[in-house]
Amino acid sequence: xxxxxxxxxxxxxxxxxxxxxxxxxxxxxxxxxxxxxxxxxxxxxxxxxxxxxxxxxxxxxxxxxxxxxxxxxxxxxxxxxxxxxxxxxxxxxxxxxxxxxxxxxxxxxxxxxxxxxxxxxxxxxxxxxxxxxxxxxxxxxxxxxxxxxxxxxxxxxxxxxxxxxxxxxxxxxxxxxxx
Length: 179
Hints:
Helix content: 55-70%
Number of strands: 0
Largest sheet: none
Number of helices: 8
InterPro entries: MtlR-like (IPR007761), MtlR-like_sf (IPR038026)
CATH architecture: Up-down Bundle
Protein name: Mannitol repressor, MtlR
Pfam families: MtlR (PF05068)
Number of domains: 1
Organism: Psychromonas ingrahamii (strain DSM 17664 / CCUG 51855 / 37)
Mean pLDDT: 84
CATH superfamily: Nucleotidyltransferases  domain 2
């Protein structure tokens, strides 16, 4: 991938995730981005013109094949050494976050303590998020100042997530010895 193509890809990730207003929309979009990135890597590694590889691998990667689902695909990539342990674990946690947010529904907020606790368990996010972000105990201030501070914290969380996801997806798009 050329430098320009990588930059455009990064911009596409940021735009896609920035448009998501709710955690539900955000984590659904991030799951889709991970699926796309993993699919591109798997296609680069396994979908070659070689008839034998194509004949053996195509059925495994099809919609109803054993490698059709993201959790199985990332395990394969991790097992082949194409994905670091940290990124593998982070993607697994993002998958869990998507499931958590879906179970909570549209009512969950980015500032939810339950969500922030789960975010701090993700290595790529925890190293970016400022400490004590979940502490929304604000001194007595005007309503507008409190709202501004809450919005700032919401944006910090969302921006940290976007940066973390972009870094993980960049790892998935690096050149590998198998591609």
